[in-house]
Amino acid sequence: MVTIEQYRQYCADWSGDPAEFSWLVQHGDIAGVSRRAIADEFEFAPSTVSRWAAGEALPHKRIQKLVIAGLEKKARRLEVAAANAVPLPHKITGHEQTFP
Fold first, then answer.
1. What tens digit of pLDDT does each residue of 10-30 get?
2. Over the stretch 30-82, which tens digit does the pLDDT of each residue have?
3. What domain count does the chain have?
């Protein structure tokens, strides 16, 4: 299992390898990004992004860099949000704690 921290680092370390690009697109859900979201953001058909994920086709290198940068940015945001998360308050004996 890949953590969000590892996924973000894979994005940051991406060297242009086509197989790595496909893997990062295929596993974008780790960063909370679906293939549909990638397609919408970069104005490609969802079927095209699915072909990228399967390694059947690749966009121009410039588009690959933009996609990976977007995935890394979203992974970083999720990583920061997880680091700043606070646990839900527990029930205090005999009293309910109110939520803000």
1. 999 999 999 999 999 999 999
2. 999 999 999 999 999 999 999 999 999 999 999 999 999 999 999 999 999 98
3. 1
Enter the tokens of residue 18. 């086509």
Is residue 90, in this structure, part of any structural domain at all?
Answer: no
How far CA 95 is from CA of 18, 63, 86, 87, in Å, comes to 57, 55, 20, 18
Contacts 24+ apart (CB under 8 A), 75-83: 75/4, 75/7, 75/8, 75/11, 75/30, 75/31, 76/8, 78/4, 78/31, 78/32, 79/4, 79/5, 79/8, 82/4
For residue 15, give its domain range.
4-82
pLDDT at position 87: 78
How is residue 95 written in tokens? 């009293």
CATH assignment at residue 15: 1.10.260
Query: In whole angstroms, how far apart are CA 96 and each of 85, 90, 91, 99?
Result: 21, 8, 6, 9
